[in-house]
Design a protein that fits this description.
Mean pLDDT: 81
Strand order of the largest sheet: 9-8-11-12
Number of strands: 12
Structural class: mainly beta
Largest sheet: 4 strands, antiparallel
Oligomer: single chain
Helix content: under 10%
Length: 187
């Protein structure tokens, strides 16, 4: 949700996307200028950027030297995606038990894949911790359907910074079930 009060044609808010980790940016959608009468929902389709690697997005505001408007207020940012999949015949298989697989590769350098299975739909969390128990990265924190899932961790923390070499724990929680595994990152 966005509320704005910007000088027409002098100030602007831009939504930009990078697919190379922030080296180059491209504008998505139209810039916002003028004034809103309250918070508005602004939706942008980022489908073209799925699977492009290190995708990042940012808000960039330009302004002149005169401060006539109040600026921009941003609240309730939501990002969601979906993937269409097809299953034929009797191939539908829901895992019979909750499980967390060992990441692969392990040890790893650039990235590693973590596979897990949920025996029932519900809220799930997959979080990376250092050996002191400090949270490093939240990979999953959402409602998930029962079934097999996999996610890739690229060795960064929640702020996008690379973490150092070392041993990390990853914990899967869903309902009253918890599993923890250990992995090694070598830079």
């Amino acid at each position: 949700m966005t509320e704005y009060d910007l000088d027409d044609d002098l100030d602007g808010l831009f939504f930009e996307v990078s697919i190379d980790g922030g080296q180059q940016w491209q504008q998505v959608g139209q810039p916002i200028t003028g004034s809103s009468s309250g918070f508005e929902e602004i939706a942008l389709n980022l489908e073209d950027f799925l699977g492009e690697g290190d995708v990042r997005f940012r808000f960039r505001m330009t302004t002149d030297a005169y401060g006539y408007g109040d600026g921009v207020h941003i609240d309730d940012i939501r990002i969601w995606w979906s993937a269409e999949v097809g299953i034929s015949g009797d191939d539908i298989s829901i895992p019979q038990k909750f499980s967390l697989a060992q990441n692969y590769p392990n040890p790893f350098n650039a990235s590693t894949k973590i596979s897990f299975a949920l025996d029932r739909s519900g809220d799930a969390r997959l979080v990376i911790y250092d050996l002191l128990g400090r949270k490093v990265k939240t990979l999953v924190s959402s409602y998930m359907e029962a079934g097999s899932h996999e996610i890739v961790w690229n060795g960064t923390d929640d702020t996008g910074d690379d973490v150092s070499s070392g041993i990390y724990m990853y914990k899967l929680e869903s309902g009253d079930k918890i599993q923890i595994k250990r992995m090694t990152l070598l830079r």
